[in-house]
Please model this.
Amino acid sequence: MTKQRAFFSLAITGFILSFLFTNCSDPSQQAQTDQNSETAGPDTSGNPEVGSEFSGIIKGSLDSISASGKVWGYALDPKNKDKSIRVYFYVDGPVGTGTLIGNALANIQSLGANAGHYYSFTIPAAYANAKAHKLYAYAHAASPSFSLTPAYLSFTAFTPKAEMIYNQGLNSLVTGTCNRCHSWNFKDLFYGPLMSPSPFQGGSPTNNLFYKKMMGHAGGTFCIKPTDFPCSDIQTWWSAEFN
Model:
């Protein structure tokens, strides 16, 4: 009986220690990663693109543009819902004055009433340059008659440019320590904690979620002073990306 009690006591102790050292999740401080970042491509409807049977009617919207330049919305021909429609994107002006930057087939399943007719498009890096732009979208053909609503969306998107600085020290910390609780990589951190808030919303080398986490959160305290690693490196990385 004594051996059984001793074994039971050791088992309970081991469980408690395991819980204390692995329970580092904190839902209130999870990274706000790019809503459109995906490791695999989205499921598509498989419907063919609408052709000569196009009814001349379009229904759709230009819904959102993320900080990484991911565009999301939907478009369809309401009289040919078993077909997909192509969306054309212009930047800094409507068709006729703006620049055509690409197109996407609106055939993503996702959820909601327009499943099978959503589209996703990535703004080219030349326009994800931390400057203000406007995006216009047209369904089926680049014509004012087929403009999605609203007529345009204003956006400021960013492209990382200082991954070398991140790799000098922060990468080892993230992969060796932070990822025991998180699933971060360079882009997750750039578009999530480092840009929370964004530079246009008060973000700074010391006012970003990544820096604040390192100064103390449920997973631990890694900096006592701003000059301590990794806080010093986070400030350097932020400045290289946004100054």
